[in-house]
Amino acid sequence: MTLAIIGGVLWLLGIVALAVGILPGDEALAVADRVWPILLFVVAVTIVAELASKAGLFDVVAARLARLARGRTMWLWVLVLALATVATAFLSLDTTAVLLTPVVVAMAVTRKLDPLPFAFVTVVLANTASLVLPVSNLTNLLASDALGGHDPIAFLTLLGPSALIAIAVSVAVLTSVFLRKLPRTYPDATAPAVADPVLLRVSAVVTVALLPLLVIGLEPWMPALAAAVVLIVVFAWRAPRALGIRLVPWSLLVFAGGLFLAVGALEAVGIGRVTSVLAGSGDDLVSLWQLAGVGALAANGINNLPAYLAMESVAGSPVRLAALLIGVNAGPIVTPWASLATLLWHDRLVAAGVRVRWSRFVLIGAVIAPLILVLAVLPLAAG
């Protein structure tokens, strides 16, 4: 609700800027033309993930991983790390934060393991692993648009080494902090009940088929929308009560739409002059560190999406744009409000009855973020 209220205020500010001529009409139309495919993808992939979750897909996958680890906590830890990384890369950071978090928490609780370490895996990797593909983060989709197309191979070529470093740093820190505190083994648990095996199988097939379709160069909204339509039709047949208006992430849509409009108005009045001074220029290592660092500070100060939008125009080159993404994707894990995924993650933990101290989140993020900013930028300068 808070997100929707903020979004509504941003919409009002943008409309006022449009009405008084601060934001020209043609620029507002250009913003809308750029934004609608991204927001359509967000809606479609959210519906796919929500319906797959309702079918029990994530619960079954988590249970299979626990069985595959054969009672050894270390291997379960590795498998959950891998699951969070894959979910983030292909289905976006919000899917990992919102849908995977309660699944891994329930999996840990039923096996008498502390759920908090596994919850930290989902929130940290939801942010830091979101550098992998264009569909992993809204900022990536915006950057892909600025780079001239949604080519996942080109995106991986540019950011793949940096993404690998971000994931490796996250895994190393999380493992050193949490794994030693967990017992070496855990008891087995009964498999989760599946209400409708048909829905489960269809959801699994659709989700597995969607993953490669998101990385073959199509506009991401196309396969995501097709997958959403298929699942909606099947659920209308098998479980119509699962369908509803709440499947659409309205709060996120209102917030993102208002944010795009408001930032467009700020750019029209010359915010780029301020950000260009802060972000500097040049493709050398120090300049890239400066850009990534300013992006991370802005993201932790306000939020990563407005931070990216405000600084995109001063990135200036593919390498600088990649440095900015490192800052606004992997950097916003220090303050709770820096990433929408983090706020959504906390809501899910509260609903699951798991307490997390924000001081602990800040401390872990303050270790991981600087390491990533320093190390993940190195491949950009070397290239």
From TrEMBL:
InterPro entries tied to this protein: Arsenical_pump_ArsB (IPR000802), Cit_transptr-like_dom (IPR004680)
Any Pfam family matching the protein: CitMHS
Cell location: Cell membrane
Residue ranges of domain Citrate transporter-like in the record: 12-312
Entry keyword annotation includes DNA-binding: no
Parts of the chain that traverse the membrane: 35-53, 74-91, 118-135, 155-178, 198-215, 221-240, 247-266, 286-309, 321-346, 358-382
Keywords annotated in UniProt: Arsenical resistance, Cell membrane, Membrane, Transmembrane, Transmembrane helix, Transport
Name of the protein in its database record: SLC13 family permease
Organism: Microbacterium mcarthurae
Lineage: Bacteria, Bacillati, Actinomycetota, Actinomycetes, Micrococcales
